[in-house]
Amino acid sequence: MATLTLPAPAKLNLFLHITGRRNDGYHQLQTLFQFIDYCDQLDFQLRNDQRISFDCDDPSLRGDDNLVLRAAQLLAQHYPGQPGVAIYLHKKLPYGGGLGGGSSDAATTLLALRQLWQLPLSDDHLARLGLQLGADVPVFVRGHAAFAEGVGEQLQRATPSECWYLVVHPNVHVATAQIFQHPDLPRQHAPLRWPNWSWDNSSNDCQQLVGDLYPEVAKALDWLVQYAPVRMTGTGACIFGRFEHEEAARAALQQLPSAWRGFVARGCNESPVCHALRQAATVNLTNQD
Questions:
Q1: Residue 219 annotated in active site
Q2: Residue 66, SS3?
Q3: Could you give the residue ranges of the DSSP H alpha helices within 145-226?
Q4: Distance (Å, whole) CA 92 – CA 207
Q5: Exposed, middle or buried by CB within 10 Å (0-12, 13-18, 19+), for 252?
Q6: Which are the contacts of 131, defined by CB distance < 8 A and separation ≥ 6?
Q7: Active-site residue among 40, 105, 136, 205?
Q8: What is the pLDDT of residues 184-233, one digit of tens each?
Q9: Is 3.30.230.10 the CATH classification of the domain at 3-159?
């Protein structure tokens, strides 16, 4: 039976502004998404029946509410009669850290099954389906760095500098809902006129509040700013520093306090999953010749 192995990359929010709040309670955002070459991995194997099975090397993620399983089931509901698939997730990205790991896993699942099931689905259609799973899923489906508005689903392609990042997880879990519901969260940032963006004219509107509520995040920010410009991604808890050169990022990583975790990654304006899908398609075509 056909198999496919694909990456599910992390993302960074290079900035995050909250420009208002809708009547339904959702927040109006402006943000800049960029991928990094630090990824989960998913293995897909078609089955002889129509069952969708899911397993993971992290036992805590094996539940029925995992976004990977929900993504596969969503696609199967819209296109019934497809072969079953066994999916295995090799979890590398810290979850609950603002890196979009769950959304990325879901998007990679949608992309993989579109290819394995040979579905006549455009990226636009697949992104609209993915939005049902989470506001960050569409950018992972489309696979290109993007300026986003609305709740994060209105996307324009962007090409920020593909620099190096040191990403630090201060080993706390930030509850996204708590941050967005908090009365002290700033919600009236004047809208930025894209593409008039720079690091200096932007910020993460959640960062101060998260640092106040989770002192370990504030400590990590204070530590990393010694080495590079620093910012929190999403609602945290991960933070990142921007470096021009890999060597400088790795030198800073060597000084990372032992209480925290960290890694060095390169910014990617095209998602690593796009390259992997093209490579898989080329292999399939070669095998058919």
A1: no
A2: coil
A3: 176-181, 207-213, 215-224
A4: 24
A5: buried
A6: 137, 138, 153
A7: 136
A8: 999 999 999 999 999 999 999 999 999 999 999 999 999 999 999 999 99
A9: yes
Is residue 11 annotated as a catalytic residue, yes or no? yes
CA pair distance 146, 144, nearest whole angstrom: 6
The token pair at 70 is 């929900």
pLDDT in tens, 144-181: 999 999 988 899 999 999 999 999 999 999 999 999 99
Copy the structure tokens of residue 86. Answer: 């066994």
Q: Which amino acid is at 70?
A: R
From CA 203, how far away is CA 225, in angstroms rounded?
14
Residue 166 — left, alpha, or beta (φ > 0 → left; ψ -120 to 50 → alpha)?
beta
Catalytic residue among 11, 40, 105, 205: 11
Numbered ranges of CATH 3.30.70.890 in the chain: 164-268
- Which CATH superfamily hosts domain 164-268? GHMP kinase, C-terminal domain (3.30.70.890)
Cβ proximity of 124 and 70 under 8 Å: no
Q: What are 43-59's pLDDT values in tens digits?
A: 999 999 999 999 999 99
> What's the whole-model pTM score?
0.95
Give the count of beta carbons closer than 10 Å to the beta carbon of residue 160.
18
The pLDDT mean for the chain works out to 94
Q: What angle do CA 264, 236, 92 make, to 5 degrees?
A: 45
Q: What are the DSSP calls for 94-160, one per residue?
A: PTTSSS-HHHHHHHHHHHHHHHHTT----HHHHHHHHHTT-TTHHHHHHTB-EEEETTTTEEEE---
Tokens (6 digits) for 140: 């992972």
The structure tokens listed for 244 are 């021009």
- Split at pLDDT 50, 70, 90, the class of 286 is very low
Distance between CA 192 and CA 194 in Å, rounded?
6
